[in-house]
Amino acid sequence: MSRFDAYLRQVLRGTYLHKQEKMDWIEEVQSHLEDSVQHYRVAGLSGEQAHQRALASFGTAKELRQQIIRETFVISPKWYLIVGVLCFISLGVALSTNMRFNDSVVTIGNPATWEQIPTPQWVLWLHQHFPLNPARWVTLGTMSLMMVFTRKQTDRLAVLISWIPFSMSLLPSSISLSLGLDGIRQVVFSALPIIQPVSIGATCAYGITAALSIAFYIWTRNRIISLTPWMMSITLTVAPFLWHLMQETLWEQTRNPIFWGMAPISWGYLWSTISSVTIHLIGAVLLFMCKRVDFSSIRLRKLI
Asked: In 3D, which of 232, 239, 220 has the Cα closest to residue 280?
């Protein structure tokens, strides 16, 4: 066992690196440490003194850990994780606020006789001052979590621009073309999520997402980062379904009028969601079978 093992374990603790990356760093740092020991031994120091001097020249474990994180991620991944969690919490806040705004007590009969539930002040405040677009929070949260897997500048740029196809949801209408002699316009790409897994629009959306993922892999050589568009599309597909399921279940179990408003989930909606996610996962697995992430650009810079 190397005399530097305890020091190296402390250095790599909490660096969010993969196993192979840690092994590469251990090999590099240990080589530099051993060279330093040899240098101090030649200078006339004893073995213990040379060992201590070599460690002192590298700095404390915390200092070297921060340097590794800075060179690998620029920003510590814990901040990406914190931002991602906050985005998904904000997603829940946005969905809850939208659910509670303009609630009504539902009774059988003329809707004109329904009584409105007083809207809480916190709902009114959030409705005026808080971004309530759930898709944006899902997208930002997914991007933040994918940042943990970035290793170089091109990885981070790929994640940051991966929202482009999903910005189609901001358009007032879907993109459509006249197909066939009858002049009927068919949707070729509509706002994600994809809830009709077998359709012209879904096929084009899958194609655009796959093309973007392949382009990301060619650019970054990082197969995990290349899956960012797929992960965004999956979360955008699953999040509204899970919220619909939760709200409908709470209404059925409690009959609390604040949970009213969602029709029971149909078999068609369930099948569409499952099919869409399955197709997403198949595509993601096929892309993930690409060449292993290229870590060759990650090297230890001069430490001393």
From this structure: 232
